[in-house]
Amino acid sequence: MTETDRHEPLDVAPGAPHGSVMSETLSYVIGLGFALVLTAISFWVASTSSLWGPGVAVGLVVLAIAQMGVHLVFFLHITTGPDNTNNVLALAFGVLIVFLVMIGTIWIMSNLAANMGPSAEMMNLQMQH
Questions:
Q1: What does DSSP assign to residue 13?
Q2: Got the DSSP string for 50-110?
Q3: If DSSP codes are grouped into helix, strand and coil, which group holds residue 15?
């Protein structure tokens, strides 16, 4: 066994299985570092007055998307490998269900708000007293 055979290759994706526990732990620590830095920057963006007002919301959206990317790659191990198709499909199905629940909830609440207002008769009774 040569020296290069004993070490794992350096081109392992963050979400791909690693050959050693140390390498996998290092990947988790790097992901944690990215997540902490993005969280700290998000708090700074939200609390600073040195940024342009409308740019704060855009910055927070960009940082939230970056945070989701870090979690998907480093912690949920979503990669572009062919053996990862089931994970990507499960993630897509979960996102679909969340959006269906959100859209359905908003739709129901807006219909309730439109249909559950006080009737004209009730408003006339209140004005007479």
A1: -
A2: SS-HHHHHHHHHHHHHHHHHHIIIIIS---SSGGGHHHHHHHHHHHHHHHHHHHHHHHHHH
A3: coil
Q: Pick from 59, 90, 79: which is nearest to 16 by CA?
A: 79
Specify the pLDDT at position 65: 93
Helix axes 53-70, 21-47, angle to 10 degrees: 170
Nearest to 71 by CA among 10, 14, 12: 14
**Alpha carbon distance 106, 73 (integer Å):** 31
Torsion angles phi and psi, residue 38, rounded to 5: -65, -35
CB-CB contact of 90 with 72 (8 Å)? no
Residue 90 C-alpha from the chain's centroid: 15
> What is the pLDDT, as a whole number, of residue 2?
53
- Give the pLDDT score at 14: 65
Please give the average pLDDT of every successive group of 10 residues along the chain, which has 129 residues.
52 66 86 96 91 89 94 86 84 94 95 78 69
Radius of gyration in angstroms for the set of CA atoms belonging to the chain, rounded to a whole number? 25
Residue 128 is predicted with a pLDDT of 66
